[in-house]
Structure to design on (635 residues):
């Protein structure tokens, strides 16, 4: 059981000053090491004494992992760049607004000032059974406490459950998937660049992990190509408390229209519905060539929820997802300025 | 070093959750160790094949050129079981050593196949074959004792030739039976914990401690099968055992091999089998 303690377990604090040094330290300490970016997820684990790493590698002193660099190919965002910096950056707001929208509704202003993009995409799931230190599948045990007739699973998965039913909690990830972002990972063998959706690992492949990082790997940057710059974007987050909460669900889309107003290209992603963020490729293919209107959105919404399997207490997520997908397509061209403030919770969207 | 992984349940009880996966490598090492020791034994000691002659050998004139050993049904059972067992081992342990894939679905499907094949085998062996031919009998034990005594240079009678199955084969069958029944029984219950579409999930069927012990038993039997499988494949490809392996494919062995290795009195073959005497309960092993 999780019990808040006054002090964290003892560990060796390592504070590298360069990405190369950080990667080397991670490689040396491998599975014993814990990577800390903004510390918002890390301190929960450490203060609850659920995770007890022997070594903590603090990245706060690695300046080269910070900053937003605009280049001919698009934008490169250092993994240690804060969410506030991203939300306020003119290039991001101007050409990649879906990401600015997404990071500006992460948690609270204080958390956005401290939280980093790398940390936000790499944070662990929020299932309270897992976070409470119970020996569930994700913690290496042999049961899911949330997926039982009486388990509290209102926030859990309707897709992709495989023993574990926790969902990925990030707000920035669907926006990054919509923008076709690439994640840059420094490994012992060199740099590896993966598509945003491939960075994440589902429980079917590895139930104790949430992303593809192996011991010794370090996420250094996220690159956003410019081929979606200036597209029609949509982001919406539904949560219980609008001032500060994890998503019950969120959706992000990037649409390019042809001259006649039909969808020429689209990328669409949702999160908090599955253990890994979901890109809705089948829906993207289905709506191509159609007008970005309510009728297409309706069709897309129905298609998006095909195959959903609700748990005891999260059936509301099916109509919620259907409507969010519908709005992500139908409202995208309008870029409604008030859309972020408009959602107050699952009931309204549902 | 503990061979169990322990955790604290939500009620504060310390419960086992599964075996330590390092046992996988211990099982692999045990299998390889068996291969090395057995090979060295055959190379260095060169045990002579010395069987007691029996007057019944005279009856060999009635033995057909191809001695029927395994029925088609028995052979099909063996290979279905082997395929399901390999699938179970691959899907269970590759993810544990770092090769990631969606294994659960394949694992329980293979488990159901194994269960069905073993149920068939039990019925087939009990009612249609010579059930007792795979169980060690008094002769086996006496001969085993004599072999051990002779190995250490003591004076002991020559052992008789084998019945349909040598004692080692019978013991192996016993080990596989115990481990197999353990993984099947525990595996069927464990299906209540995952989403299969066949059973309604009910993780509260047992207490955490009972579940934990079930996972431990499943894991122990599973890693045991790693060693057992290595040994079985090794024995199956040994040159002197190839006639037996071939008989599991084609269903028969040669008269020469039969007369050389088997006691025509303990395993009587007189032309095409007219009774179940010629076919044994372990057909398929």
């Amino acid at each position: 059981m999780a019990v808040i303690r006054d002090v964290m377990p003892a560990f060796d604090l390592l504070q590298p000053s360069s990405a190369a040094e950080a990667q080397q330290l991670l490689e040396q300490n491998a599975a014993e090491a814990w990577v800390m970016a903004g510390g918002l997820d890390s301190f929960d684990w450490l203060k609850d004494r659920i995770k007890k790493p022997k070594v903590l590698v603090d990245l706060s002193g690695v300046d080269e992992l910070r900053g937003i660099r605009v280049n001919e190919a698009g934008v490169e965002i250092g993994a240690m760049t804060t969410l506030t910096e991203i939300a306020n950056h003119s290039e991001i707001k101007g050409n990649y607004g879906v990401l600015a929208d997404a990071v500006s509704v992460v948690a609270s202003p204080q958390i956005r000032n401290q939280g980093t993009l790398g940390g936000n995409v790499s944070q662990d799931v929020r299932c309270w059974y897992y976070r409470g230190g119970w020996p569930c599948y994700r913690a290496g045990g042999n049961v899911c406490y949330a997926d039982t007739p009486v388990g509290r699973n209102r926030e859990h998965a309707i897709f992709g459950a495989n023993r574990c039913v926790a969902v990925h909690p990030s707000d920035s990830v669907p926006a990054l998937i919509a923008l076709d972002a690439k994640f840059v990972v420094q490994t012992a063998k060199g740099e590896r660049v993966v598509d945003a959706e491939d960075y994440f690992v589902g429980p079917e492949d590895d139930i104790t992990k949430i992303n593809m990082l192996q011991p010794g790997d370090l996420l250094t940057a996220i690159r956003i190509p410019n081929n979606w710059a200036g597209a029609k974007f949509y982001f919406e987050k539904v949560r219980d408390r609008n001032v500060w909460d994890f998503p019950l669900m969120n959706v992000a889309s990037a649409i390019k229209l042809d001259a006649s107003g039909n969808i020429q290209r689209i990328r669409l992603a949702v999160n908090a519905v599955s253990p890994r963020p979901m890109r809705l490729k089948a829906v993207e293919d289905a709506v191509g060539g159609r007008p970005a209107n309510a009728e297409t959105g309706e069709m897309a919404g129905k298609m998006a929820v095909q195959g959903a399997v609700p748990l005891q207490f999260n059936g509301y997520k099916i109509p919620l997802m259907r409507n969010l997908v519908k709005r992500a397509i139908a409202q995208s061209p309008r870029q409604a300025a008030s859309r972020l403030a408009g959602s107050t919770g699952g009931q309204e969207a549902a | 070093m503990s061979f169990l992984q322990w955790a604290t349940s939500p009620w504060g009880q310390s419960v086992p959750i599964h075996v330590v996966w390092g046992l996988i490598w211990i099982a692999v090492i045990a299998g390889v160790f068996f291969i090395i020791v057995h090979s060295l034994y055959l190379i260095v000691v060169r045990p002579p094949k010395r069987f007691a002659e029996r007057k019944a050998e005279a009856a060999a004139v009635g033995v057909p050129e191809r001695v029927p050993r395994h029925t088609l049904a028995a052979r099909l059972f063996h290979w279905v079981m082997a395929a399901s067992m390999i699938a179970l081992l691959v899907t269970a342990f590759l993810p544990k050593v770092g090769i990631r894939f969606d294994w659960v679905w394949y694992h329980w499907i293979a488990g159901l196949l194994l269960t069905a094949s073993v149920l068939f085998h039990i019925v087939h062996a009990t009612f249609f074959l010579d059930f007792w031919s795979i169980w060690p009998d008094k002769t086996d034990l006496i001969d085993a004792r004599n072999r051990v005594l002779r190995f250490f240079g003591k004076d002991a009678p020559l052992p008789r030739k084998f019945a349909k199955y040598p004692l080692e084969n019978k013991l192996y069958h016993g080990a596989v039976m115990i481990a197999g029944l353990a993984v099947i029984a525990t595996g069927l219950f464990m299906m209540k914990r995952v989403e299969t579409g066949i059973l309604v999930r009910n993780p509260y069927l047992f207490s955490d401690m009972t579940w934990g012990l079930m996972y431990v038993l499943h894991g122990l039997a599973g890693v045991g099968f790693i060693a057992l499988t290595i040994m079985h494949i090794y024995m199956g490809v040994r040159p002197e055992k190839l006639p037996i392996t071939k008989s599991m494919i084609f269903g028969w062995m040669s008269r020469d091999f039969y007369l050389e290795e088997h006691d025509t009195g303990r395993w009587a073959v007189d032309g095409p089998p007219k009774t179940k005497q010629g076919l044994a309960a372990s057909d398929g092993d």
Summary: Chain B touches chain A through 26 residues (CB under 8 Å). Confidence is low (pLDDT under 50) at residues 273-285 of chain B. The first helix of chain B runs from residue 23 to 45. Chain B has one domain: 4-278.
